[in-house]
Structure formats: structure tokens, C-alpha cells
Amino acid sequence: MSEALVYWLQQVLNALQLGSIYALIALGYTLVYGILTMINFAHGDVFMVGAFFCFLSAVYLGLPFVPTLLLTILGTALLGVLIERLAYKPLRHAPRVSAVITALGVGLFLENFTLALAPYPKNVPALLDNVTWDLGGVSLSSLQVIIIFLSLGLMLVLDHVVHRTPVGMAMRAISWDRTFVPLMGVPVNTIISVTFAIGAGLAGAAGTMYALAYPVIDPYMGIMVGWKAFISAVVGGIGNIRGAMIGAFLLGGVEIMVTAFFPSTYRDFVAFTLLLLLILVRPYGILGQPRTQKV
Amino acid sequence: MSAPLAPAAEARLAPAAEAQLEVRDLTLSYDGIRALHGVSFTVGAGEIVTLVGANGAGKTSVLRAISGLAPFGGSIRFEGQDLRRVPAHRIVGLGIAHVPEGRGVFGNLTVHENLRLATWQRRDRAGIEADLERVLGTFPRLRERLRQPAGTLSGGEQQMLAVGRALMSRARLLLLDEPSMGLSPRLVQEIFRVIEEINRSGVTVLLVEQNANMALHVASRAYVLETGAVTLSGTGPELRGDPRVREAYLGA
Ligand SMILES: Nc1ncnc2c1ncn2[C@@H]1O[C@H](COP(=O)(O)OP(=O)(O)OP(=O)(O)O)[C@@H](O)[C@H]1O
Ligand SMILES: [Mg+2]
């Protein structure tokens, strides 16, 4: 393979890895927005808690990768449900700004609670034997393969749940208009809880994989990653599941390409500028559509 | 057997014997402002009862209270059961289906999904399939559009979907909120024909209408609602003959 081709393939691979993690988190923003038209600003911090759950499971329980992943997903799913029930549900009919402030508050709470328990960054042990293959100059690690395929697998499952199951049907009905959903016999609050559980569980999976790929974790790691995932969701068209995935891989790709051409400090600046321009051209995102009000 | 009762008297006797729905002293407020001031009426099993009234009289509010969509005062009993503490999503399971004002179809779901969603609490697959066939038999237009998002249907088709969806729950009492709203005269005839057909199959109907003329024709009994209170009641023919009704609601 030519040197240039090797180089580009390597970049695409890196972009896929980063994009997968953004996508898993972006899905949580988009699911919650879809069902409640609310931005869950604590979501990036749920991702961070996921990384810490992974750390706890690996270090204190000594569990291997698969049980750690499952435990983390379960733990964050539960955290997501608790956050919704305790912090958001009481404010469901309050002015929208109250919900935004509350979500930011929940995020700060999670960061500082974690900081109190873990004042110094933690090292997550390698849970997988990381094998690196050399494919004609392109290096591919087993961790990369796992991150990319596990994320894609989870996204396919989610897409199936949302578009092909009764629960997904109820979620979509609520996102259209919650008012009359109870008339169908659907318990709206249960479906909202399920949505938070799914979104937070995916963030937990992302936290686990991130902690394995970038093993030094701290209580503030969710802020920047959370913003990027949020922006991915907006770029894809917030509320749209496939859009969130497209936006995340786009952002992952742009970031990797920027670092390939510019000093790495330019990365976020250039990436965010490009995405802002995209939003100016397509205000509802790539797959988003203005909601036409039905009477 | 004694001599047959006159239709009017017969209809009036029916509910007293077996009121399927009994609404007593119903009150309802929005942000502290009373919309219903003690509404009482009954619906007997197998009847078509209509509530007529002008804009803002409180017709929709009555249906919202029955379906558990709004908290209320007074009492609502369905087949003897008190509905006060029943959450909205359990009402349909008791046998009450509600076709809301403005249809309330989910525009992002396909026609088929809209119909399926209404069977959320049912587990009898075969029965659901049979009911789907029955509904599509009643509304053949829906069969052609099963895979289409409901938002792409015309207003009349959406109304048919909303009624069909209510039938999917196998309700014994059907609440209809202005089913003729926004439909062409021909479709209005059609929807009223379907309402009578559904009723003949054994489903009780509580019909809210501004189209008092049509409603009073199909109804066995009717109540007139004015600013949150019942001001008149009687059989369909009685109210159609009442000068006050003729002037206020029939434009005569
Ligand atoms: N969500 C609401 N918030 C505040 N007031 C409301 C609300 N819904 C209804 N009302 C008020 O309650 C009263 C009864 O309204 P309702 O919708 O029950 O009347 P209606 O008879 O169905 O009228 P229409 O024929 O126009 O549908 C009206 O005065 C209305 O303004
Ligand atoms: Mg109304």
C-alpha cells in the first residue's frame, strides 16, 4: 500500500473509534430530547460516572471485561432513572429554563460527588489483552476492534428497539405528542424511565470503552466529551437517532482530520467552527426536520 | 308482554335500569378556574348519548375527566367501578376508549403502528389480528395506507384512523369528541353511519358534538351543556323539538 493510503486508512480507523464513543453518548441526548424536548445536560457526567463504575468494578471487584461492562451499563441505567425521577420529573410542567438549570445542577453534583470520593485521577487497569495487528502498515488494535464493533452492535440494537418494538413505538408516540398517549393504555412515566435507562446505559458502555482506550480518568472527563456528543446530536438533527450516529462519526472524522493537518491544539476550535457552519446551513441538523404542527 | 313503550319513554327508562356510566356532580378546574360546575348524567349500556353545547361549554372537559386525563371532583362510575383513583393508562383496560378532539393520531407512526399501539395492554395476538381485520373492513381506506405515516393522511382519513384505533381496544364504551369536526358533509354522513354501525355491534357511545343536528338524529338521549352545567336533557326527538335547542343549536 502506498504511504498516503496507509496514512488515511489509519486516520479513518481512529475516527471510527472516536466517533463510536461520541455516538453512544449522543444517542442519550437525542433519545431524551426526542421524548421530553429537554436537553439532559447531566448526560456527559453520567458517562464519567460510567468510567468510574468501570474502575470500581475492575479494581475493587476484580471483575473481567464483560461483567464490568454489564455492571457499568446496569449502574448507569439505574442512575439515569434516578436522575429523571428525583430531579426532572417534579419539574416536568415547570418553565423550560428550570429544567435546564436542574440538569446543569445534577451534572455539577455528579462531578463534585465523584471528586469528593476520588480527588486524584485514577488509572483504569487494562481489562483486555491488547493485541496490535499490522495490516500492511495500518496498525489495528484489538481494543479498537472491540470498541467499534460493540458500539455498532449497541446502535443496531437500539435502532431495532426504537423502530421495531412496542416500547419503541410508545417512545415515538410520546415524542410526537404525549397528551393522548395514556388513552392507548401506555404508561407514559414508565416509558420515560425506560428511555432514560437506555440513554444512560449507553453512556455507561461508552464510559467503559473510553476508560479502556484512555485509562486515566477524572471527575471532569465528561464535560468536554459530553459537549462533543451533544453537538454531534445537534448536527445530526436532535431527536433523530440515525442523525446522532451520523453526527458523531462526522465529528470524530473532522477531529482526526484536523489533527492530521494542524497542531493538535487547533482540533476543537476547527471542529466546532465547521459544525457551527453546518448548523447555519442546516439549522435542524443533517437528518432533522422542522416539526410541522398538526392540529 | 305489555304493550310496547313509545320509543321516547323506552329510551328514558333504559339508563335508570342499567347505567353503564354514571357521572354525578362532576366538577373540574383549570388553574383554579372552574370549567365544570357539577355535571350529572348517565349513559346506559348500548345507548348513544350525546352532549351538545357551544364552544367552551365544557364538553371536552367531561370526556377528559372520564378518561383520567384531568383530576375532577364529584364521582364517575363505570360499570359500578369508581374511576377517581384510576390512572389514565388503566382506563382503556376497563373498557373505555376515547377518540380525542382533534383526533390525536401519532403522525410519525404508520397507520398500522397507530392501530397496534392501542392494543398495548392486550396479549391475545389472534384477537388483535381479528380486530385489525374488522377495523380495516370498516375503513378500507386505511388498509391501502397501512405502511404510511399517519401524518400523511387527509383529515377524514385521520378521523377514521382515530375511530379505528379506539375500536382496537375492544372497548364497551366509546367516547367521541367532535368526530365530524372539519369533515366534508359527505364524510360527516359517513362517520355518523359508522358510529351507528359500531353502536349496533353492542358498543355504547358517548358522543360530543357541535353538529347538534346530526348528533340528535343518531342519539337515543341527549344532554345540553352550557357553561359547565347541564341545562336540558331528553330524548333525541324531544330535544330536536325543543324551541330553545332549535334556536341555539339547530339554527332554526
Ligand atoms: N387546558 C386548559 N387550560 C385552561 N382552561 C381550559 C383548558 N381547557 C379548557 N379550558 C377552559 O375550560 C372551559 C371548557 O372547555 P372545553 O374544552 O371543555 O369546552 P368544549 O365544550 O369542549 O368546547 P369546544 O366546543 O370549543 O371544543 C373553557 O372555558 C375553556 O377555556
Ligand atoms: Mg371540545
Structure write-up:
The complex is a heterodimer of chains A (295) and B (252). Chain A has 295 residues and is mainly α. Chain A is globular. Chain A has helices at residues 3-36, 43-59, 65-88, 96-117, 142-164, 166-176, 188-213, 221-236, 241-261, 267-281; strands spanning 122-123, 132-135, 138-141, 216-217. Helices cover 71% and strands 4% of the residues of chain A. In chain A, helix 5 packs antiparallel against helix 7 and helix 9 crosses helix 10 (267-281). Chain A contains ten helices and four strands; from the N terminus they run ααααβββαααβααα. Chain B is an alpha/beta fold and 252 residues long. Helix content of chain B is 40%, strand content 26%. In chain B, strand 1 (19-30) and strand 2 form a beta hairpin. Chain B starts with 6 loop residues before the first helix and ends with a helix. Chains A and B meet through helix 6 of A and helix 3 and helix 4 of B. Bound molecules: adenosine-5'-triphosphate and magnesium ion (MG). Adenosine-5'-triphosphate (ATP) binds at residues 30, 35, 53, 55-61, 101, 210 of chain B.
Short description:
The complex is a heterodimer of chains A (295) and B (252). Chain A has 295 residues and is mainly alpha-helical.
**CATH T-level fold name of chain A:** ABC transporter involved in vitamin B12 uptake, BtuC
Do you know the CATH topology of chain B?
Rossmann fold
User: Could you tell me how far the N terminus lies from the C terminus of chain B, measured between alpha carbons in angstroms?
Assistant: 40 Å
Largest sheet of chain B: 6 strands, mixed
CATH superfamily of chain B: P-loop containing nucleotide triphosphate hydrolases
Pattern of helices and strands of chain A:
HHHHEEEHHHEHHH
Secondary structure class of chain A reads mainly alpha
Distance between the termini of chain A: 59 Å
Number of domains of chain B: 1
Question: What is the helix fraction of residues of chain B, given as a range?
Answer: 25-40%
Broad structural category of chain B: alpha/beta
Strand order of the largest sheet of chain A: 1-4
Biggest interface: chains and residue counts? A-B, 20 and 28 residues
Helix and strand pattern of chain B? HEEEHEEHEHHHHEHEHEEHH
Shape of chain A: globular
Count of individual beta strands of chain B: 10
- In total, how many beta strands of chain A? 4
On the 0-100 scale, what is the average pLDDT of chain A?
A: 93
Average pLDDT score of chain B: 91
Uncertain runs of chain B are 1-16
